[in-house]
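Box 3.1 A note on notation
Throughout this textbook, protein chains are presented in two layers. The first layer is the amino acid sequence; the second is a token string describing backbone geometry. Keep the layers aligned when reading.
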Amino acid sequence: MDIVRPYSFDRPLFFATLVLLTLGVVMVFSASGVYATEKFHQPFYFIIQQGVGAVVGLALIIGLLPLRRPLYENPFVVHGFGLAVIALLVFCFAMPTINGTNRWVILGGLRLQPSEFAKIALILYLASAIDRKREKIRELRHLAAPLAVTSLVTILILREPDFGTGVLVFGLGLVVLFLGGMRLKHFAGFALVAVPFLTIYLLSSPYRIERLKGFFAPQQATADVTFQVDQSKLALGAGGLLGVSFGWSTQKLYFLPCAHTDFIFAIVGEEFGLVGTAITLGLFVLVFVRGLVISWRAPSLQSQLIAAGMTLYLGLQALLNMTVVLGLGPCKGVPLPLVSFGRSSLLANLIAVGILLHISQRKRNVRVKP
């Protein structure tokens, strides 16, 4: 049994989240104002959408914190949420194709990206499955269901197609299973079996091959393949130490594609310089460290795995995004958590933070014998 002390949550994590969230709303407006004006005749279009996502996400956190029973550990909630996410992932293929992909479910005026919530659903399911089986998880036959669910979710996301998110989800699933007691030989064996399939899928698309060529041999790639990363580096270089000042970025004026989404970190670097990017990186490091501390102090195996999974989800996604922006990795289309534009992504990020904050309030109830 454990006890919950409402509103005794981890203050550093909450502070870092609020600062990153504020930075994201401000930078989305700066990076998208001109584009929103020309496309929607409304300069505040994207910041309003981002603001709605932020308000809804914060409301969910506020509603979650005072709860004494963790909903994210309730089997009915976990399995219901997981089945709903899988159903939405399948439903994506019945939706109209957008930019050659089937990543969104569109209902009325609402557009939802289920793959963002799949990360949370998978972590919750795996933590629940491991907690139920405990020591049995070291046996291969008890890994069948968790591995099957991880593979199913990964395949559905890859088919959208979204290779970056698919690989991230697959990696998260394997790491959570390993932390929960999966033997190293089983971990390595399943990873080795999956690598050829992922490699074949990666090389089955010409544009992904071109992206790899643009990263490993940029001198041999065409200019349009390396264009995004080249413009991203120009933005970061133009920012220098202190930046060109807020709102004065030139790369966002149709030079840098996806300036308010996947490459928003480059606009942060251009407008706030090395100082701004270092502070942003420092805030993500703080989120990651506090998440690990929360996981270490969590009162049960299930809450430890959930906290570790949510921490890795936020930390790895931030790392993947920054490596692309800095030209240290091939383009993957992964947004920067809490900062990039995207209501689904932002809402999923805030749900993950809310779960971490709630776990930080829970203490093991240790009874001392008289």
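The two ends are 19 Å apart (CA to CA). The first strand starts at residue 2 and ends at 4.
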